[in-house]
Structure prediction request, 396 residues.
Amino acid sequence: MSAKPGTSVAAATVVGNGNPSINDINLEALSLSEGIRESPVCIIVLGMAGSGKTTFTRSLIQHAQSQFNPYVVNLDPACREVPYAAHIDIRDTVNYKEVMKQYQLGPNGGIVTALNMFTTKMPKFAELVRRAGERGHKWCIIDTPGQIEVFTWSASGNIITEGLATMFPTIVVYVMDVVRSTCPTTFMSNMLYACSILYKTRLPFLVALNKIDLKECSFVQEWMTDFEAFQDALEKEQSYVNNLTRTMSLTLDTFYENLITCGVSAKSGVGFSTLLTHLLECVAEYERDYKPVYEKMRQQRLAEQATVPDPAAHIEEAGVAVPLGLDLRDPVSNTDNSVFLMAPSLVPQQLDAAEQEMETDAKGDLEDQNFQSFVQNHMTAQQSKRDKQQQQEQQN
Ligand SMILES: Nc1nc2c(ncn2[C@@H]2O[C@H](COP(=O)(O)OP(=O)(O)O)[C@@H](O)[C@H]2O)c(=O)[nH]1
Ligand SMILES: [Mg+2]
Prediction:
């Protein structure tokens, strides 16, 4: 069993083998310039809630122990307890209930935020994984949060997956509950999810068809290889999404072609020796196909780092620096360091007293002149009116 979760958000303790706190880790050898290491191989365990990820992780640890001495990571901040001894447990770094309280979040927001907080320590996490590799851990197994989207559709999930894949050989195991997939439409949505993760992560991918102690998985493998068999199953189901599912199954054909599947029971351990063989195939696939791609990405990042100019050196080109910590209640001034909240031409100009007096005088004179000419014009108009009246009276 793992250690009890920490109590404060800032607390960070890593358990097992007398490891130091994650905050105390000094980044020694981790750098982009070093290249992808041989070990440990990172195995990220993904799958829908309740598909059996945690139980699968436990079984995988047991089966891989003697050969691969796995280093174990739990990234689910909301689980009560895990059935294995974790070397790194997110619950020791972040207390998700405390996060919910402090940031007034619901359970989902709390879990996502907890994972985000953990991800801020990604370099230290990666350093621990690197050190584990040096100590002889050939595999690093990573159990992810119960709700799959917390990991697959969050920035932190991306950062963790990509971060690991650019430093270590990394593969994804998608755990699928065969009992829940007997309905063709549910099977299809599960497969679409798997497909989207495959294209998103761009990593070797293995589908573990779990819970075969309850239901044989040959029907899933048949649906994947035989289009007609899937259509027959679909015919028997009265569902308004049948047409969509039919079209989707055609689309997924290419996805199925290269997909490795393996039936297992995480509970009883059946199928795990075959699974280990498939995992080794995935590692070879990473070395052969994926490593060159990640190597290229790493080189690009190095090149970017070398060409990105130091912003401080180009401050004049970038514009006037905005002082940090500016109190927005401060009156707007026109000193060189200030932020212009109005276009400079619209900021009222301060005039000195004499100038102000002169300006009011000038204005007053103009107004006086205008008034006098108005009166003059008015009097002239009145006079000409009276003259006209007199002329008319004389004519009559
Ligand atoms: N019968 C059977 N039950 C399983 C198997 N794997 C997991 N379970 C059960 O499925 C439930 C969810 O498993 P869990 O590992 O917590 O799923 P997670 O949310 O994906 O981590 C638990 O009740 C497990 O005991 C299996 O291979 N066979
Ligand atoms: Mg779990």
